[in-house]
Design a protein that fits this description.
mainly alpha
Length: 156
């Protein structure tokens, strides 16, 4: 495969008579695709293919190799890919960066339909009411009875 993409990448291809011949072919292939530009973290281990164990990593390697396709003598195979993405460095003016601090992105969600029903205003006191004292019940929502123990189904 690599010799089709880049002729002469692997000089010697063994006839797979014995296991070490097969392993040597796989090793030669892996070294050649590294030189071709496939990153080491995308390359499978020789035993993954030889022992027929990690098909996913072998497939990932072939996909990475396909993304490196350069056309060459293959009649256009791989044209349009061009390999790994290059780093795109961007520089913004400081005033533009400051403007961005005032924008809430769509990824942060929204507070539509948010409710603090039953909650008191921040900073105000919540008074306690004890009905045993015989005083009149308060008329506001900021006072809770000692027997209630809750905030009457308040929701956040």
């Amino acid at each position: 495969l690599i010799n089709k993409l880049q002729p002469g990448s692997v000089q010697k291809v063994n006839d797979p008579v014995q296991n070490w011949h097969k392993l040597e072919n796989i090793g030669n292939f892996l070294r050649a695709i590294t030189r071709y530009g496939v990153k080491p973290h995308d390359i499978f281990e020789a035993n993954d293919l030889f022992e027929n164990t990690n098909h996913t990593q072998v497939q990932s390697t072939l996909i990475a190799l396909a993304s490196q396709g350069r056309g060459g003598d293959t009649g256009g195979v791989g044209k349009g890919f061009g390999g790994y993405a290059e780093k795109q460095q961007r520089r913004f003016h400081p005033e533009k960066l400051r403007e961005g601090r005032n924008i809430i992105g769509l990824q942060m969600g929204t507070n539509k339909f948010a409710s603090q029903q039953g909650m008191t205003a921040y900073g105000t006191r919540r008074h306690l009411y004890d009905p045993k004292l015989g005083t009149d019940q308060p008329l506001d929502q900021a006072t809770i009875s000692l027997q209630m123990g809750t905030n009457k189904g308040a929701s956040q």
